[in-house]
Protein 1
Amino acid sequence: MASCYHSEKDLVNSEYLLPRSFYHQDVLVFARQLLGKRLFRRTDEGTVSGTIVETEAYRADDPASHSFRGKTARNSPMFEEGGHTYIYLSYGIHDMLNIVCAPVGVAEAVLIRAVMPNHGIDLMRIRTSKPTSDIERLASGPGLVAKAFGISWRRDSNIDVTTKEGGIWIANGEEIKVDKVTVTTRIGITKAADKPWRFYISGNRAVSRI
DNA sequence: AAGGCGATTGCCT
DNA sequence: GGCAATCGCCTTT
């Protein structure tokens, strides 16, 4: 096995931030390509990371997208350049982490629905109040992703994820082949509910709903 | 100015 | 499986 020949330090050093061009793709392609990438979060509590295993695309011409009716105070990060966060509060309780793609003015984004935790498991357990939970259940849902990673809309919206400066960044990860991706309709929406714009790694235990 | 709703989660039956 | 929790945003008076 190749992993036997690398120390953990070497593996960390082999990680690289994804370039701006990665965030200038068609949102449906982008949502699929985010699968397998590594999400990082650094706060004064420590650094956590995990593999993105489930995403949903929200397109500019999409009635289900917050940007559909134009720019407002809430959705303005969606209109920024690709590679920024758009975070909003759902049901008054849950923060939803989105990664914006496309050029400035084209409001498209991908919701991170589930992450397989990799580093900082103990901190995620504290944040989610799931001390005995299985690792794959700590961030298996969009609200849980933000909770486990310590991300909130007030503090963390419109952060550039192509650098580490903002405390949230995305690095390369495992390559996910097309035949390992399951495509379904999106969860929990009423508008454009027929669009098959949800993507997840087939069989992954951290996916929110099968 | 007021009321309804939502890209959810977790607890109760 | 059903439903309460909880609040900013958007639509309607």
Protein 2
Amino acid sequence: MPEKRTRYAILGALTLGRMSGYDLKRFADQSLAHFWTESYGQIYPILKELLKEGLIREHRSGPRRTEYAITPGGKAALDEWLVRPAEHQALRIELLLKLFFARRLTSAQVRALLEEFRDQHVGRLAEFDAIESDLETRLGDHPDLPYWLMTLNYGQHVSRALIEWSDQTLKELGKQGRKRAT
Amino acid sequence: MPEKRTRYAILGALTLGRMSGYDLKRFADQSLAHFWTESYGQIYPILKELLKEGLIREHRSGPRRTEYAITPGGKAALDEWLVRPAEHQALRIELLLKLFFARRLTSAQVRALLEEFRDQHVGRLAEFDAIESDLETRLGDHPDLPYWLMTLNYGQHVSRALIEWSDQTLKELGKQGRKRAT
DNA sequence: CATGTCATGTAAATTGTTACATGATTGT
DNA sequence: ACAATCATGTAACAATTTACATGACATG
């Protein structure tokens, strides 16, 4: 069902300029990291596919460097994907699976899980805030900036909600019994 | 890295009572659905593995039905996993990937994506609220209930946050230009 | 007697990461 | 000279879904 989203991540990235496989990986790690990941094991084979299909073009820009540029056909394919509603994807949230069976744990153990989770999101939120000011100062006039800020804002909303949820849940945990199942 | 979480989902489920492979699938679909999924293709082979390792026991309860029960060894393995902090898993949020490249779209097209997303979460939130009252009336005294409500609450927090984010983003979209990239 | 649910299973395909190999260039 | 970064690639592994096959039993 999740029909080769890496292809579109690559095509999308190439609308921002020519890139090598290496560049694409860095782009994913630096700019998409908080909602997307890519690995070399995907990037290089898919670049060859896209090339064969005429959705991208090759430009040798050095003896050991090849840049790729998106073609009109590639843009068409990307746009066709962009307008399709994002599929609802089945998630697997490990923390919640643990929490669902948490009666087997002591309150202290559940508390530790939740605190770890909370701290993770406090850290993430701080990161998002830092990236936001950085983007605004460095790319204040970039035409894509409004959309990039929207994706950041998503992360900020979610992290804030999950910190709130963690706090609430931790508080409620205090009210409950301290027994443990066998 | 995500070291066979299905094993623990199965072990956890079996702490609630004996189940067949079929039961486990239904349990996942009905009780874990909003944060976990399982398929037959995983369940049946893994049941055999767990059996071989002595983490579960077989009970033939009919000519074409086999129930499984967790053993003390299985409980130990489950508990060992439960206390380990949940690994941070790399997410891939398709909507955000689209939004990141949304300058290629018209405002109306972006708006459509966001509205679809918003509606999805309005629906989910309503579902969560319905399940919550249902659980509270039907299982008001179940010892696991507090933990189950915590997982529900997680979903409610996230959905509320994402509805808010959608609304904010839609509003901001109105303020922006109506141009489209080429 | 047809439809739906109960029940078990498997083969193939998909999707993706990890780990490695290789080597040039750049900076310290 | 050493480490880091640039650069391309692949093989092996892991996890998971999808689609199918099979058939009993229950209900209207």
